[in-house]
Specification:
Blueprint lengths: L24 H4 L2 H8 L4 H6 L16 E4 L6 H14 L7 E5 L9 H13 L4 E5 L9 E2 L12 E5 L1 E2 L13 E5 L5 H9 L6 E6 L3 E4 L5 E8 L8 E7 L5 E8 L2 E7 L5 E7 L8 H10 L5 E5 H12 L11 E6 L3 H12 L6 E6 L4 E5 L2 H9 L1
Parallel strand pairs: 1-2, 2-3, 3-5, 4-6, 5-7, 7-8, 8-10, 9-11, 10-12, 11-13, 12-14, 14-15, 15-16, 16-17
Antiparallel strand pairs: 17-18
Helix pairs in contact: 8-9
Organism: Olea europaea subsp. europaea
InterPro entries: F-box-like_dom_sf, F-box_dom, FBL13/AtMIF1-like, LRR_dom_sf, LRR_FXL15/At3g58940/PEG3-like
Pfam family, one: LRR_At5g56370
Amino acid sequence: MENDFPSDFELYESQELNSSEPLDRLSELPDSVVHFIFSFLPMDYVVRTTILSKRWKDLWTFVPYIYFQPKEGELDKFTNFVNRTLMLWKGKKIQKFTIDFKDVYEPSSCTDLNLWVRFALEHEVEELDLDYFFVTLDDRYWMTQRLFSGSSIKKLRIMDCNMEVSGKIHWDQLKSLTINTVRWGQDEIDKVLSGSPQLEILIMYTSEKMSIHSGSLKKLFIHFDLHNHFGEEIDSALEIWTPNLQVLEISGRLYCKFFLQVNVPSLVEATLHFSTPGYDDLEMVMVRDFFQSIHHVEKLSLGSHFIKELSAMEKNDLPSPPLNLKRLSVDTYIGKDVLAGILNLLEISPDLSILEIMDLRSYEVIKTKTYSILVSSFVA
């Protein structure tokens, strides 16, 4: 767990030991330091600290970092513990609230989960982390509608949930959002983006095709896991219209045809490490247009799929647009089918100063600042 070290942390001078009464150094620690230490522990361990020091007896009841992690097979015991802990908690504001429910979640727990999330929202939680486990899609936890009006949330992480928004979303202060395997559609995506005017970081693990329009996003990470289970001819598309985006990463596997369109005039860094097994042709025209859209990026990382398409473009005399690259990273198998693509990239990147190649056969990195030496060694 990551937390900023308390700003009012102070180093205390050592005091002379009293021969009649040993110094209780734990009691000398400021509350903020003790709470920071607590932030690394699940609440069942935090509660046990009451026996360590007299002053710590009730100190846990004001801790702003609340982290619940049950043990497998102890759902009822865990539920009772959480309910009692929250009933005894005396703080005013929660900095981070975490429920790591992936080992014991059952659909019957939804009522309690809703109450716990509501408790966090009522205490102006700034960072909310909800991690569940599901057996089937229908068993997933459906997020409470109350969550969508959590205006105090600045960082939100949601794992393995269902999401259906009946009204508007009011995440006025949200800066960072991570969503993994959440069942949602374009309507929910649009509501999230329109209801999060300050959102800067979006991390998504998804199996949905989508269109992303945002004026606030600066970093976008998308990991696809899109399956074609029935052998049907399906298509997937990703549209990204983000004028202030600086970092873009797309990874994963798409077992279908894939179309990519972007409008990212402020982009500085791009990473493309996705593949389309069974659909090797990414459409050379699409790749050419994509590179035209990101010609201004300074740092680019590519997987073998894109490199092969660049090789095909070279073979078919389809010109590639010039790039403004300063640094290029390539993860691929070194072979004839990708060599032309690498050389193509070097030819269209006159300002390139650093080239890194990860050979996936040996997992060795070839790095050079004078890429002409590397090129000549390939040709030889």
